[in-house]
Amino acid sequence: MAWRDAKASRVRLLLFMASIILGIAAVVSIQLFSTNLKDNIQRQSKSLMGADYIIDARQQPTDRAQTIIDSLKPDALEVNFVSMIAFPKNGGTKLVKVRGIDGDFPFYGSMNTEPVSAATTYQELGGALVDATLLLQFNIQPGDSIKVGELTMPVIGALKSIPGSTAIGTSVAPPIVIPHRFINATELLQFGSRKEYQFFYKASDTLDLNRFEEKIGPMLDKENADLDTHTSTSRRLGQRYENVGKFLNLAAFIALLLGCIGIASSVHIYIKEKLKSIAVLKCIGASRRQSFMIFLIQIAGIGIIGGFIGSMIGVALQELFPYILKGFLPFTVEVSITAQPIVMGVFLGLFMSVLFASLPLLSTWYVSPLDVLRVDETASKGPKKARIIVFSLILIFLFLFSFWLLGSFIYAFGFVVATLITFAVLAGIALLFMKVIRKFFPKRFGFTSRQSLLNLFRPNNQTVVLVVAIGLGTFLISTLYFTKDILLAKTEVGQSNANANMIILDVQSEQRATIEQTIKAKGLPVLDNIPLVTMRIHSLKGKLVNELRQDSTRQVRGWLLNHEFRTTYRNTLIDSEEVIEGSWIPELKSEDSVVISISDNLAADAKLNVGDAIVFNVQGVLMQTTVGSIRKVDWTQLQLNFSILFPKGVLEDAPQFNVITTAVPDEVASANLQGDLVVKFPNVTVIDLRQVYTIIEDILDKVSWIINFMAFFSILTGIIVLIGSVRTSKYQRIKESVLLRTLGATNKQILKISALEYIFLGLLGSLVGILLALISSFCLALLVFKEPFVPSAIPFLVFLPGITLLVLGIGLSNIQTVLRSSPLEVLRREG
């Protein structure tokens, strides 16, 4: 009977199946990709690092650290720093990351160059490997020369990839590789230069890297050095992409939930149409169990077939993710297919179809044989206890599945609660809308308008399910656009003379006046000339840093104990700072005790309050200070902010270097200034904030594309649910339309009635979704980003009319059959 009835209702059942297919496809594709990503990270961890483990230090290693490094016998070493380079061929300049390597690094993976031989010959030939994109940008060929500081050397080849570099990192500062022996000849490593020393090791297969890290790591930490193994790096890399995977999983799960709601709604209407058939079966002796199992088998079959088809589509879709996430991954993902996500897809299809269809299926159990004689198509919903049990099972499943995806009890509970609230708000608004229309029904409206409004709360209406489906999909995609605007606003770089858009770093004291003259000679302003003094913390509240390092019960964050702070002094606060505790002292006299201001995040990490004592080691000289104020600092602004701020009258005589900022009107002025500075002052580093802004915007565009891609599943699932709901009530519509035509209604009137109904549904669903997105984005801007919220007009101008027209088109596509139906058809069906 299940098979025979399914063949007769195959169109409707196929549409039910489509709802599940999309959700399963989304879940399976992301699960497969996540599995492949983890496997690739573990398999390629050595190739990503290029060695078994690395010891690195931000400054010249201490004697003790150097002793440890030498005792382990490094197989290769590197000094890297960010600097400007020049291309004598055309006068071009560029900010790059210079990597001076000695030894046969990398030991694993490869340095991909063009020509291939350049990776092994650059050391012997004494030339440079330059980022391939950079060579194309400045039209440089192998054989041309580059100028790195005071050193001019030939380009040996194009560098396509090297272990230790990421796509995002190279977009800011492309790498160039030179032999380590030429580093001193560049004369770029001067006082205050930011540099990193790295020592690469190839270990034996018998070395337990985890135990090795536990033993050597703390010893190096005390000497301001770090130990990274390929296993710990792969763990960190996996965690870095874990949040992306969690978001994609949740987006796919939402699409699956939408499909399940479509199943539940469609089955509800489908069962209503079968009530008389079920009553007839019971009249001829069918038991409750038999009538229930007929439709349960149908739904289970839908789930299994839909789960399998969705899994196959998911296998094909996962091939897209390496291309979508290409800009975020430092390696190429090798895609393989495993059985677990496919089995999970089939199981999910079966389990969720049956689970979400259980509530409407319960009504088949309580159909009475007397229903054959009843005119209305209603049935008992079953006892309240049974419905509560089914609803509880749905909630438990949602929580367990969310917990499996997120790995956190709190996050899983929060997601389930947020999902219930969102669905409840959408459904509540739909029900309220229906109640308001029924209570304040406009009796003076025309016939077609009144009839279309009546359809919104008539039996077998689609108002709730369509508002939920359309509203949730619109909510997801609208939130993306609103949030993207907030993020872009936080990275906005002004182009007026009042805003610095070029920063010149590592300016030595004797270079300040000349660099200022060079800037002014080009008609550009000198906006800031900020002195920087490097120092480390010697003691906190009377307790030495060395004692704090060994104290396992300390509350002070570990990064403070090894960090080299770059501080400044001035007598004013800037617009990104606000004193929240204590009072700011702008200037001190020589006899006054030193009172400083610290940022709120530093105060929290160091457990400091106003009045606490800090002793700094200022390049060998101990300085006693007291916390006079705590500032709230907006670190998101693209300007120089400081954790530690001294007043004037304290650090003027300390060894220091400067940062100078200016504003350039266009790319030509930027290139001219950079060219002059690199030629005259090769040690300085120039950062054009407009380029940084472009890179940030590009990254946000990629992120938004990924979110759009996943939100598309929810929108498409909502459309499938819509089609399914419309098709399911097709015969009910035929009956109503034929009765209207029998009473004298024209095809034009029937068409108008349906059009107005779907316009109401489309407008209500999309408008509610956009308004919910507006509220949630406002909360994000206020509570998370702490930025003024200026919403994008795109959801209002595009989504609202676009989705409404889409709903209208799908709804009217069904009307053609209705319009062609004669009154005899309905009489035959009733007969």
What is the number of helical segments per DSSP (H or I, 4+ residues)? 29
Overall mean pLDDT score?
A: 80
Largest sheet: 6 strands, mixed, barrel
Summing up helix and strand content along with how strands pair, one would put the structural category as alpha+beta
Radius of gyration: 34 Å
Q: What separation lies between the terminal Cα atoms?
A: 22 Å
Strand content: 15-25%
Topology:
Blueprint: H1 2-8, H2 10-43, H3 45-49, E1 53-57, H4 63-71, E2 76-87, E3 92-103, E4 112-114, H5 118-125, E5 128-131, H6 132-137, E6 145-148, E7 151-161, H7 167-172, E8 175-179, H8 183-186, E9 195-201, H9 209-221, E10 225-229, H10 230-273, H11 275-283, H12 288-317, H13 321-324, H14 339-365, H15 384-406, H16 409-439, H17 447-454, H18 463-490, E11 502-508, H19 512-521, E12 526-540, E13 543-544, H20 545-550, H21 559-562, E14 565-569, E15 577-582, E16 594-599, H22 600-606, E17 613-618, E18 621-633, E19 644-646, E20 657-662, H23 667-680, E21 685-688, H24 689-728, H25 730-742, H26 747-785, H27 794-813, H28 815-820, H29 823-830
Parallel strand pairs: 3-8, 5-7, 14-19, 16-18
Antiparallel strand pairs: 1-9, 1-10, 2-3, 2-6, 2-9, 4-7, 5-8, 6-7, 11-20, 11-21, 12-13, 12-14, 12-17, 12-20, 15-18, 16-19, 17-18
Helix pairs in contact: 2-10, 2-12, 2-14, 2-24, 10-14, 10-18, 10-24, 12-14, 14-15, 15-16, 16-18, 17-26, 18-24, 18-26, 18-27, 24-27, 26-27
